[in-house]
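As a warm-up, study this chain.
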Amino acid sequence: MKSIAESSAFKLNGFVVLGIVGVITAFGSWRIWTLLQKFPGQLENLNTLLDDPELIVWAIATLFTVILPAISGFFTVEPNEAVVLTFFGRYIGTVREAGFWWTNPFAGKRRVSLRIRNFNSNILKVNEAQGSPIEIAAVVVWQVQDSAKSRFAVDNYEDFVATQSETAIRTLAVSYPYDSPAGTPSLRGVPDEILNALQAELQARLSIAGVEVLEARLSHLAYAPEIAQAMLRRQQAQAIIDARRQIVESAVGMVDEALKRLSEEKIVELDEERKATMVNNLLVVLTSEQNTQPVINTGTLYA
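Now compare it with the structure written out below.
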């Protein structure tokens, strides 16, 4: 399939052409009226009027320089709008400049909006990379950049944007897990990477229609209702495990630091058994969820 790229179309300032048409119309009407004065009392006789070829020429010239341009040659272009011109089935160019213009009266004209538009996808239910069903939706900000491609490369570029956007969202969802350990890309864990991947996927699909993707963002992301509660409990359990691991690592560091300082500053000499007891007590104090109650040794009573 031959690709059609946008090009500039032939056009003239509409006000200038309108002035020229007005002058020609006025002069042609005056000339026709002057010629008609040659036949006083014979205006009802059509054969007599057709005997004057100059009258016929001026009548035809006035008709073709006034009627045709007035009917189809003039057109307007609004800001952020393009008019695609075709001539007997052939693309002849696009007019992007806003204003009042005139072009080939026989050219067909199709308007294409160049304004920025949003596409809000429906909430799609798909299986993510690990097989869990999720709900996902996105907002796509797009704009037509090549009016010729948008009109001739696809049947309906707005429907094309909608269909390809939902397809790209599904492709993104099955390429990443919903959630994963730190450092591994996931839909919830690395939003910037996900948005860049979604925008790149959309641009690759929509370039054929002359559309530029300005921005793409997820508007909805959640587990499917049938597994939402189970996944919430799993997330809570994982959060508790991570918190416990952090507490234990911190407690071990504090105990190690305490033993080193006691040894380096020679505050007290501890044998291995006392060190073990001290480590056990410190770990209990540092990792316990409740306040610990110390037991004070006041000495030993001997009988």
